Structures are given as structure tokens and as C-alpha cells.
Amino acid sequence: NNDFELVKFYEDNNKTGTNFNRNGFESLLEDIRYKKINCIIVKDLSRFGRDYKECSNYIENILPFLNVRFIAINDKFDSYNIKSNDILSMQLKNIVNEVYSKDISKKVSSALKSKRKNGQYLCTLPTYGYLKDTENRGKVIVDKEASQVVKQIFNLRLRYKSYNEILFELEKFNIDAPYKHFYNLGFFKTDKYANIKWNKQSINGILNNDFYIGKLTQGKTIQTISNNYKKIQLPKEEWVVIHNNHIPIIDEDTFYKVQNINEKLKQKYFK
Q1: pLDDT tens-digit profile of 210-267?
Q2: How far is CA 28 from the centre of its chain?
Q3: Is 34 left (phi over 0), alpha (psi -120 to 50) or beta?
Q4: Which entry of 66, 90, 150, 170 is 20 to 30 Å from 107 by CA?
Q5: In 3-state terms, the chain is what percent helix, strand and coil (to 5)?
């Protein structure tokens, strides 16, 4: 259409339309303020947003006030050519879009909850010492190489070795840190993981992780489409805990002995 001149594409990948706090949308508003654009064209109303009140306020009040034309192609809506029932139709579609988004969010949450209860491991990256089972991505198998390192770390702690002493032992034998190990296995493509070193936090994380005794704990936080994927901490009683979910690397006796040692030394912070 010769009446239009394309200035810029605005997009917000992996962001929910129920929230207008989006980088692409903020960029759009900034260009409107500086009068770089005077027309917005979207595929349909849901591409602009899925919050009924916000969408209606922008389309009916804010954009007209700023003399910005709004066109939703598939919904046949053009703010410069509004028919008597167009506003009502637009409002109804915005309501439907919001309800649809919330419904999808509930279905996704429900599906994830069901998978957790079935003991499926949902993290993208496996816990160090394990690998994703290629035949069943919801399960893990023991990583023969890394699992020996985990055992070595627990055995050193049983001898009351400090975190610094454990780090020294790992570095002395040139044992790759967890993220470097995953980099070498091809989990990461960026080179920033190629030379990551062991640190006290990674040692602490291993020594306090009951995943190594075959216990799977998931659902500590929840992220939904409707809240723009913000993490919400859940109370402990709502966590999904599955015992004997996978092959343990550390026996329970060893694990809880180490927890007692950690408790005795916690006043010395990461010792």
C-alpha cells in the first residue's frame, strides 16, 4: 500500500501479551513520543496485547490522543475508519484474548505439575553427575565421569576437608568444573564456559544437594504466562518431592554425615 512507509518492526519474543512492560513495546512508545511513527499495524489484536483493560485504553484513548492510527489486519479494525460496531467488536476480542491467554497458562501449569508428580526431571541442564536419558528426556542417568568427582568431593568432606582444600584437590588433578564439563559435552555453545573454574559455591551446592541420594524436588517456584514468567516462591509444603526417583550417586548415610559436618562448620562460612 503506497499510503504507508515502513519505519520499523517491533517484536517481543518469549514475552506474554498480558504484560505491557516489554522492550519492543517500550521502543514503540518511545518512537511515538519522538514522532518517528504515526501508525501501528499488527496482524491481529492479540499481537498488540492480551490485557483487556490496557489494550482498550491504548486503542480507544492513548493512541487517538497521540494522533496514531491503529490497524489490526485480521480483525479488520482501522481506527481511521471505525464503524458503529467496531469498538464493541474490538473490546469483545480483547476480552477473549485475555481469557485465552490465562486458560493456556493454566493448562501449561497443570501439565508441568502432572509431569513433576510422575517424577519427570524438567530442568534443561542435568544436575552435575548425571546426564539426560536420550531415550526418555524426563529421566536422568549417571554420568560415569562426573559421578566419580561427586563421590570424591563427599569423601573429602567426610575427612573434614575445608572447601579450599577440596578446591585444591580438584585443581591439582585438573578436574573440570561442572559448567566446563557441560561445555565439553556440547551443552553450551558459547566459549565463556570453556575455562570456568571450581569455586566454593559450586562445592557447597554439590555437598548440600539431596538429588544425589535419588531424591527429586521440583516446583519450588512457579512461572506462568499470565505473570510474564516472573518467579514466585512456593511454600515448602507445595513442593513436589519424589523419593527413589533415580539411581543415587551418594548413599544416604554418607550424605547425612556430610550434612552434620556442614552444620558444625557453617559458622565459619564456606570452610
Answers
A1: 999 999 888 777 665 555 556 778 788 878 888 998 999 999 999 999 999 988 877 6
A2: 26
A3: alpha
A4: 90
A5: 50, 10, 40
Instruction: Quote the radius of gyration of the chain (alpha carbons, Å).
Output: 26
Q: What's at 154, amino acid-wise? A: F
Query: Which DSSP category does 197 fall into?
Result: P
φ and ψ at residue 54, rounded to 5 degrees? -65, -45
CA of 227: how far to CAs of 69, 98, 169, 205, in Å?
29, 12, 45, 29
Torsions phi, psi for 115 (to 5 deg):
-65, -40
Task: Give the integer Cα–Cα distance in Å for 77 and 88.
Answer: 11
> Tens digits of per-residue pLDDT, 47-97?
787 666 777 788 888 888 889 999 888 888 888 887 656 666 666 665 655
pLDDT of residue 271: 46
Q: How far apart are CA 45 and CA 72, in angstroms?
A: 6
Residue 237, pLDDT score:
82
Q: What is the three-class DSSP state of 228?
A: coil
C-alpha cell at 237: 509444603
DSSP-derived pairing of the beta strands 39-42 and 69-72: parallel
DSSP state of 151: H
Q: What is the C-alpha separation between 181 and 145, in angstroms, rounded?
A: 10
